[in-house]
């Protein structure tokens, strides 16, 4: 009872840092967090660089002396009168001998607990250790819980100030959340990593308390007062029980951190939702849009980034050797939960990446029918660019996923697993399939300009992707800022340029049709009047009139169909105007100059030759409009 009272009253083993960090943890970006942790790992002062708290010894001198006296008095088996039992207490079996693959979630996500083993009542065979473990488990897990609630409250206040909607206030569809924003997901992921950092500080504080109270009782009397007979009566399971009590305490903290991370995956990460359209082709309100899916994927990779960097140090803090040459320290409840954090985060991050790829393929929020009426850049192209930029900083986190999970776009695992570029390539190819589907929908409208819109749509989107993601200077080192991310592989530039040229060639075919009217009239068919060597006969003039009339009619129709098509970039617009001009204007100029020298119509020659080459060039400079 006294041990329980002292340890519960002691408070948490962490206190706020005196020196505030240069960058507030509440606004720290993923890149800044990675740089901070990398620097700390290199300098081997991780605990001084994480979280907003420092480890702390909350016990005062008098309670320490009293509890040490109790622990030393009871000793290994000091509370019993008979011989020390040789059978291992059943409570130790629940703490040790666990395998990572056998640890899974047994409690509801968001319940505050991942696995029920961290909530069992300790029965280690040593009442003083049971009291220590139960008292400090409650204090340690409550400490992390209070910190997490504070972060949620602060995040909600920031969201309310900006007029946003926090995840706690979202509507639900079939118990799944929707309307995920990039800022919400990023903030939640940042706070999840902050909780993991805080968990490490708490565990460091608990390790300090353990070494102060429990460790001294595990050592032999330095004065050598114990004789051989007493030594024989010591329980062989005492040290293992001590380590089990410590693992039980810190395991509850790891368990809570794991539940927090999975809660973010479920709410802001959307892994409880589907991506794409339903089987009947309709779009359910619970599906993820591309914007939501990429926000979730970036958040998942950010959490994994924190887990992979902090995980080894977290496991080391939780590790405590039994020293009996039988018990492996990595089979304790705390150790396997450390492994579970990484394994579970990898699994959930993989699901967010798969959701993103599926959302791009199916485009659930827009669909094939929802395409820009002016054939400009599709919203799906913009969303994919934002998605690629959002996930691009997390190269190492992505590698952690691909090495351990067989992915639809990369079935290889281990060292043969692909890099981030393979995923980006997969997303781009899914996007191009999506765009081709939208282009086909243009052609099925049944309008005269439908086919032209389809080609212009593909040209605009290919140009946009090339401008936003193409790497025109492959030898120049790219900035770390994701806003400047460029696809390094030559495949992307080659693919976009090839697609643009192919669509441009198809588009120009409509203008090339004008050339069928600009064929030369055979000299044998040209007959001039006898009294006027520059005036053609009626039959000969009719041949030229037909050509001019056919050209005028086709040109006016084609011009009207094309002049209001949208080209998104001034340089692209000028280039395409020049390409169109080159298709038929040189030939028209030769035709015009050759046949306007002769008189092929007595009264209406001006009406037939109403478009001078200069006027046509001027009109070519006016086709296409801004978005």
Describe it:
Helices cover 58% and strands 3% of the residues. With 627 residues, it is mainly alpha-helical. The strands form four sheets. A two-stranded antiparallel ribbon has the order 1-2. The protein has a two-stranded antiparallel ribbon with strand order 3-4. α18 (570-595) packs antiparallel against α20. The protein starts with a helix and ends in a 7-residue tail after the last helix.
Task: Please supply descriptive tags for the structure shown above.
two-stranded antiparallel ribbon; 58% helix; single chain; mainly alpha; 627 residues
Q: By helix and strand content, what is the structural category?
A: mainly alpha
Shape type: rod-shaped
Question: What is the distance, rounded to the nearest whole angstrom, between the alpha carbons of the first and last residues?
Answer: 76 Å
Instruction: Give the spatial strand order of the biggest sheet.
Output: 1-2
User: Percent of residues in helical segments?
Assistant: 55-70%
Largest sheet data: 2 strands, antiparallel
Secondary-structure element series: HEHHEHHHEEHHHEEHHHHHHHEEHHHH
Helix run count:
20
How many E-type strands?
Answer: 8
Look at the structure and give the mean pLDDT.
81
User: What is the radius of gyration computed over CA atoms, rounded to a whole number of angstroms?
Assistant: 37 Å
> What percent strand?
under 5%
Low-confidence stretches: 166-178, 220-232, 274-286
Summarize the topology.
Blueprint: H1 2-9, E1 14-16, H2 30-43, H3 46-49, E2 53-55, H4 61-74, H5 90-95, H6 127-161, E3 172-173, E4 176-177, H7 182-213, H8 228-233, H9 238-267, E5 274-275, E6 287-288, H10 290-318, H11 333-362, H12 379-391, H13 395-404, H14 420-443, H15 450-469, H16 490-512, E7 528-529, E8 532-536, H17 538-562, H18 570-595, H19 605-608, H20 613-620
Parallel strand pairs: 5-6
Antiparallel strand pairs: 1-2, 3-4, 7-8
Helix pairs in contact: 1-6, 2-10, 6-7, 6-9, 7-9, 7-10, 9-10, 9-11, 10-11, 10-12, 10-13, 11-13, 11-14, 12-14, 14-15, 15-16, 16-18, 18-20
